[in-house]
Design a protein that fits this description.
123 residues, mainly alpha, two-stranded parallel sheet, 7 helices, 2 strands, 48% helix, disordered C terminus
């Protein structure tokens, strides 16, 4: 609610972690999309997995830059043109959402705490 109040579009969904940008195959992308994952990311899992293992509250704010399903990567001219807008959205997210996450860590993660893995989620 805090993010939509400053004009950000917010979508909740599960992400899958991949170890290297643009190293995923087209088959990976199709499988993730078919399984219902909202996005792929690289960095958040490096913080969230150890935090979960040690029961330390943690959160992540992701700003989506590209659309792999549509064939748009970070090198697409349209994506490059939107860089300033995304940086503004990220600044808004930090300014507005970070205090919420830090003061209510259990509220941000509770709905996704026991969601199935990609293999379990795939039809």
């Amino acid at each position: 609610m805090a993010l939509t109040g400053v004009g950000c579009t917010v979508r909740r969904g599960l992400t899958v972690t991949h170890q290297a940008q643009l190293a995923e195959s087209w088959a990976d992308i199709q499988a993730w999309h078919k399984a219902g994952w909202a996005g792929a990311e690289m960095e958040a899992a490096s913080v969230l997995a150890p935090a979960a293992a040690f029961a330390v509250p943690a959160g992540a704010i992701l700003v989506i830059a590209d659309n792999l399903v549509a064939g748009q990567s970070v090198f697409d001219p349209e994506i490059r043109e939107g860089r300033t807008r995304r940086r503004g959205a990220l600044a808004d997210a930090y300014k507005v959402a970070l205090p919420v996450i830090l003061t209510h860590p259990d509220d941000a993660t509770a709905p996704f705490a026991s969601h199935p893995s990609p293999q379990e989620a795939a039809p």
